[in-house]
Amino acid sequence: MKIAIVAEHASARFGGEAILPLQYFRILRDRNYDVWLVVHERTREELEGLFGNDPRVIFTPDTPLIRLLWRLGAFLPQRVANFSTGYLMRLLTQRRQVKEARRLVREEGVQIVHQPIPVSPREPSMLFRLGAPVVVGPLNGGMEFPSGFRDRSSVLEDYAVAAARAMTNVMNRLIPGKRQASVVMVANKRSRMALPAGLGGKVIEICENGVDFSLWGGATGQNHQSGPTHTRFVFTGRLVDWKAVDLLLQAFARAKELAPMSLLIMGDGDARERLEKLAGELDLLSSEEGVGKVRFAGWLSQKECADALAARDALVLPSLYECGGAVVLEAMALSKPVIATAWGGPLDYLNAECGILVPPRSPDALIDGLAEALRKLASSPELRVSMGQAAQLRVRAEFDWERKVDAVLDVYASALRSEGGTAPL
To answer: What does each C-alpha distance from 115 to 5, 126, 139, 217, 231 come to in angstroms?
Structure first.
C-alpha cells in the first residue's frame, strides 16, 4: 500500500497535534511501507535530523504572505488567531500540498492520502479530487469551556469563535474536502457531533492520541516512589490561560499544608510571568523542588520531559479546554497516576482505577477538588502505586501507537475497498 501523509506540520518540538503526522510517518516508514510525508518547510530542520535527506519527506515552501499572517496572528488572542490568520495560513499551505498530493498519486502510484491534522472537526479541507481515496483524522474538537469558566475567554474570542462556527457548513460546501473524504475518523462522540453536514463517506471512531512506548515505556517508566520527605507532582504543557495553572497553584498552596509535597511545572508560554508572580505571592516559588515549593523548569525536549516525568510521583493537568491531552497517556505509560479536570480529552483516557477526575463546577470548586486530590495521593504511596499500575495496563491495552497504526491501516484498506481498489497490506 502506498500512502501519503499530508499535514501542516510534523513535529515533536511543536507539541500538540503536530506530533500526530510525525508518528504515522515514523511507524509506517519503520514498517517499510511506501509512505510519503508532505509538510510545511518550517519543520525541515527537525525532520532532516530524524530522517536525513529522505526524498519521501516533501516540504512546501514558506511565502511572504504566510509570514505576514503569522505576524498579524501574534497580536490576536490564540483562539481568534487559530480561526482567522491561522486558518488562512493553513489554506495557503494546503493549496500547494494539493498539487504535491496529486503528483504523488499520478507519478508514484500513491493509493491513500491521509490528512491527520488539523484535528478540528469543523475546519474545511482542500484535499479532494486527488485521484485517490482521502482519509481524514482522527478529529477531536467540539469543545467549549465549562459553564462556570466562560470568563476565561474574552468577548472578542466568543464572537469570533461563534461566527466561525456559524459559517462551518457554508465553508465546507465551498471547500468540500471533508464532505468528499472516503473516511472521516473521530476521537469521540463530541467530535462526531461537530462534523459538518453532508458527509459522503464513513465516519469511524478511533482515539486521536497514542503513546510511543519506545520513549515513554522504558526502564525509566517504572513506578517511582519518593523518599520519606515529600510527594513530587508535575504539570507539563503550554503556560496559557486555559490550562488553569493559576488554579493549580492555589490548590497546591492549600494541599501543601495537609501533606508534604512539591510541584514541578514544565513548559513555557504567554502566562508564565503572571504564573511565577502568583507563585511568589503565595510563597511557593523556588529554584529548587523543596517541600511546599513550586519550580518552573521552562521548555524541555520530549526526552527531557519523559525523564522528568518518570522521576515524579503523579501528573496534574487542570486544563479547562483540553481536546486531547496526550500528556495524560504519557504519564500513564510511565505508571503515574493522574489528577485531571473532568472535561474534554482526559475523560476519554482516565477512570477511577488510574486517576482522579475533578469536576469543573466553578473555580472555587475546582481549586477545592484539586487540593483534595493532591492531598489524597500525597497521603497514600500505596494508592499511587496501584493507580500507576492500572494506568500502564490501560494505556498498553488501548493507546499504544503501534496498535493505533494497525487500526488506521484497516481504515486505509476499507477506504480502498469502498473506492473499488485493492488493499495490499
So the answer is: 6, 10, 10, 28, 42
Look up residue 1 and give its three cell numbers.
500500500
* Residue from 125, 223, 235 nearest 183 by CA: 125
Q: Work out the average pLDDT over 174-201.
A: 90
% helix, strand, coil for the chain, step of 5: 50, 15, 35
Alpha carbon distance 343, 322 (integer Å): 7
Length of the chain: 425
The DSSP H or E segment spanning 401 is helix 401-418
- The values of phi and psi at residue 254, to 5°, are -80, -45
Phi, psi dihedrals of residue 416, rounded to the nearest 5° = -65, -45
- Taking residue 275's Cβ as centre, other Cβ atoms within 10 Å add up to 21
Higher-confidence residue of 101 and 14: namely: 101
Please return the burial class of 3, using the count of CB atoms within 10 Å of its CB with bins 0-12, 13-18 and 19+.
Answer: buried
Judge whether residue 79 has pLDDT over 80. Answer: no
Number of helices (H) and strands (E) in the chain: give both, helices first: 18, 13
198-231 tens-digit pLDDT: 888 899 999 888 888 877 765 444 444 445 578 9
Cα gap 113→8, rounded to integer Å: 14
Q: How does DSSP assign 310-361, residue by residue?
A: HTSSEEEE--SS-S--HHHHHHHHTT--EEEESSSTHHHH--TTTEEEE--S
Cβ atoms 25, 39 nearer than 8 A: no
**Residue 51's pLDDT band (cuts 50, 70, 90):** very high
The per-residue pLDDT for 160 is: 64
Angle between helices 272-281 and 245-255 (to 10 degrees): 20
Q: Cell numbers of 303, please?
A: 526526552
Strand-pair category, 261-266 with 2-6: unpaired
DSSP 52: -
The pLDDT of residue 223 = 46
pLDDT of 387 strictly over 50:
yes
User: What's the whole-number average pLDDT of the chain?
Assistant: 88
Q: What is the pTM of this model?
A: 0.82
SS3 per-residue string spanning 107-166: HHCCCEEEECCCCCCCCCECCCCCCCCEEEEEECCCCCCCHHHHHHCCHHHHHHHHHHHH
Q: How does pLDDT run across 131-180, given as a tens digit for each residue?
A: 999 999 899 987 788 888 866 666 666 666 666 666 777 888 888 999 99
Neighbours of 397 (CB within 10 A): 9
